[in-house]
Amino acid sequence: MDQNNDGSMAQVRHVVLVLSGKGGVGKSTVTSELALALRHAGKKVGILDVDLCGPSIPRMLSVGRPDVHQCDSGWVPVYTDAEKSLALMSIGFLLEDPDEAVVWRGPKKNALIGQFVSDVAWGELDVLLVDTPPGTSDEHLAIVENLKKHRVDGAVLVTTPQAVSTGDVRREITFCKKTGVRILGIIENMSGFVCPHCSECSNIFSKGGGEELAEQTGSVFLGSVPLDPLLCSSIEEGKDFVQSFPDSATFSTISTICQTLLNSLGTA
């Protein structure tokens, strides 16, 4: 990314949207695990959580509800580590009550997204991941329009294997084409279940829907991430799965997806 850009995004090298056509496919899980894998690969990473009605990132990364401070450049992001290698911004940090529902119309949502893009002092980042809500609505248009002045490198699309999910992701692909967002690849999440006793992977849903969709649409297939109880418990407890279970097959899959993404961005 052009280092001469003014404002809070000036030192952000790459921006990647994480999209899905349907809720419940594990998009925030994929976002958080990609961020951790990128950090372990030696990259400085940020997550911008624009899922305003369902902010999951703060809990998944176990940062609680810290106060968001201001500096001369704007809002200071919340860091997960002392080295400040993983920065976060979410509406979850701004709500007085974590159980409070965000009942906002489009213009107010769009205004906050604009603030998130222009007023967060990210500093130097290799990759900023943008965790979006499901669908192709106001929030998506707002984030694309606000980020276009800086440049969006592309989008990673998350689906589950079933046809009901891949059908919605097809519409997300259409959204990307209409808005000029490059598709970096498709991830098939919840692709099989890893037994916690024998580590065998069983297909409790259908399998291969994401890979088939990638072939049909000429997109890159980044990989399949199974349902892994170790990953689920890590997210529930806010632990770093990538660090805790480096010998698991799921870790290998996430690391491979991360490396493919870095190669696509030209930062490997």
Description:
With 268 residues, the chain is of the alpha/beta class. The protein has nine helices and eleven strands. Strands 1, 2, 5, 6, 7, 8, 9, 10 and 11 form a nine-stranded mixed β-sheet that branches. It has a two-stranded antiparallel ribbon with strand order 3-4. β9 and β10 form a beta hairpin. The longest helix is centred in the middle third of the chain and has 17 residues. It is globular and about 50 Å long.
Give a quick set of tags describing it.
268 residues; alpha/beta; two-stranded antiparallel ribbon; 37% helix; globular; disordered N terminus
Q: How large is the radius of gyration?
A: 18 Å
How many individual helices?
Answer: 9
- Helix vs. strand class: alpha/beta
Low-confidence stretches: 1-6
Average pLDDT for all residues: 89
Measured by DSSP, the beta-strand proportion falls in: 15-25%
The helix content is: 25-40%
End-to-end C-alpha gap: 15 Å
Number of extended strands: 11
Inertia-based shape: globular
Largest sheet: 9 strands, mixed
Q: What is the helix/strand order?
A: EHEHEEEEHEHEHEEHEHHH
Summarize the topology:
Layout lengths: L11 E8 L7 H14 L4 E5 L7 H4 L9 E2 L2 E2 L2 E2 L6 E5 L15 H14 L5 E7 L6 H10 L6 E6 L3 H17 L3 E12 L6 E2 L6 H9 L3 E7 L1 H9 L3 H4 L4 H17 L3
Parallel strand pairs: 1-7, 1-8, 2-6, 2-7, 8-9, 9-11
Antiparallel strand pairs: 3-4, 5-6, 9-10
Helix pairs in contact: 1-9, 3-4, 5-6
Condensed summary:
The protein contains nine helices and eleven strands. By secondary structure, the chain is of the alpha/beta class.
